[in-house]
Amino acid sequence: MYKKISVFFILSLFIISVGSVFGLKAKIGFAEPEINVTSKSAYLMDADSRTVIYKNNEQKRAPIASMCKIMTLLLSFEAMDAGELSIDETLTISENAAGMGGSQIFLETGGEYKVGELIKGITVASANDASVAIAERLAGSESSFVDKMNEKATALGMNDTVFVNCTGLPKAGQYSCAKDVAVMFSELIKHKAYFNYSGIWMDEISHPKGRITQISNTNKLIRFYSGCDAGKTGYTSEAGHCLAASAKRNGMRLISVIISAPDGKTRFKEASSLFNYGFDNFTNKLVVDCEKPLDLTIGVKKGRTDSVKVKTERSVYIFSEKSVKHAVELSFTPTCDAVAPIKEGDILGTLSVYDGGVEIDKVNVIAMESVNEKNFWDGIVDVTQNWSIAQ
Fold first, then answer.
1. Count of alpha carbons within 13 angstroms of residue 297, beta-carbon side
2. What is residue 14's predicted lDDT score, i.e. its pLDDT?
3. With CB atoms counted within 10 Å of each terminal CB, which end of the chain scores lower, N or C?
4. Residue 99 scores a pLDDT above 50
5. Active-site residue, from 66, 76, 256, 273
């Protein structure tokens, strides 16, 4: 049978489940951040809880230059996860892809390159030619791929974004905003394979005819800011100097977005200032780890085993100012009878997270393993064992 639990523990944290820190400032007394940002738009958020720490013109629509490639990369890694693209697959480069201007890795028309090399070129060198090559592979043409980009943007709630190409090269009607960039970048960094490329400082691309193209990361923070391991720059005269970057310290990952800084140095300086403010003043505590079983036994009826291990469908974090203390309570509630057969991933209940008696989060509790239904012979064994015990 099910067991309802209520676990109480104290954390030196204040709980914010959703929403903007500044939207709650009047209630919890957050100090106004002393950050001097000259860029036209800026945004800082916690990557796990998506709590907003700082925002300035976050929904102002503007061109974002090569930060459009964040979506190109996101769709690429999603295709890999779905088995639709392999990192070791070889692509033949079209004349259209090889002829792209702007930042590039100088792909050869008709040349064969591994997908991994193209992903590296996009991530490290912001390569337009590699971006179009991937787009053509995944959708047949860049225009069809752009349709997929916009579909994904809609699915993510990026209401102030329209893509017109996969590179970010200047074109009328293409725009986004700091908030939307943070949203799509937070989706990209969920893919662990992305970090195999995002932290590369210097490398090279080998071409079929023997040429070597040296590349260096356009995101200078991976070398000069402690904890920064991912990012995407962008620049055109229309967009100005742009940057989306992520840094992690002491288990807390932040995302910083800068749009239309006056120069390249300023975008890195202001992103660093945002990171410093976040790391100096806030913390993000992992309360429930979805990779580990809950300390909870759920009995199974008619199963070949009497119980099933469970975990939460996603991890639960507590984001807060460092200085505040609050109490947190967890409570499990079953949503159905645990009757075999049970499949791994089946929802068996919910885990509610409370602060001061107020529910601030709820997450599904799922089976970590499958439990088969007892068959005829299992019944015979049970009867035999019970008879032996009775003797």
1. 5
2. 32
3. C
4. yes
5. 66
Helix, coil or strand: residue 7: strand
Per the DSSP assignment, residues forming a β-bridge with 339 are 301
Strand, helix or coil at 203?
Answer: strand
- Tell me which of 40, 49, 55, 69 is the catalytic residue: 69
Beta-carbon count within 10 A of 362 CB = 14
pLDDT of residue 136: 99
Of 126, 131, 198, 320, which residue is the catalytic one?
Answer: 126
| Tokens (6 digits) for 196 | 């195999």
Active site residue 49: no
Query: What tokens does 82 get?
Result: 């779905």
The H or E element that residue 385 is part of is helix 376-390
66 CB-near residues (< 8 Å, 6+ apart): 103, 126, 167, 168, 218, 232, 233, 234, 235, 242
Rounded-to-integer distance, Cα 190 and Cα 312, Å: 18
Please check the confidence at residue 384 and state whether its pLDDT lies above 60.
Answer: no
Three-state SS for 198? helix
Side chain identity at residue 344, one-letter code? E
Domains of the chain are 6-16+289-376 (2.60.410.10), 33-283 (3.40.710.10)
Closest CA to 48 of 365, 331, 361: 361
pTM of the predicted protein model: 0.81
- As beta bridge partners, residue 63 has none
**Average pLDDT along the chain:** 88
Output the pLDDT for position 375.
67
- Quick one: pLDDT band at residue 32, thresholds 50, 70, 90? low
Q: β-pairing, 358-367 with 52-56?
A: unpaired
User: What CA–CA distances, in Å, run from 144 to 72, 260, 278, 364?
Assistant: 12, 29, 39, 36
**pLDDT value at residue 385:** 54
**pLDDT for residue 387 is more than 80:** no
Q: Is 50 exceeded by the pLDDT of residue 3? A: no
* Cα–Cα distance for residue pair 198/269, rounded to 1 Å: 19
Residue 71: how many other CB atoms lie within 10 Å: 29
Structure tokens at 292: 């580990």
Question: Which structure tokens are listed for 342?
Answer: 């049970």
Q: What is the pLDDT of residues 159-185, one digit of tens each?
A: 999 999 999 999 999 999 999 999 999
Helix (H, G, I), strand (E, B) or coil at 11: strand
- What is the structure's pLDDT at 35? 83
Secondary structure letter of residue 22 according to DSSP? G
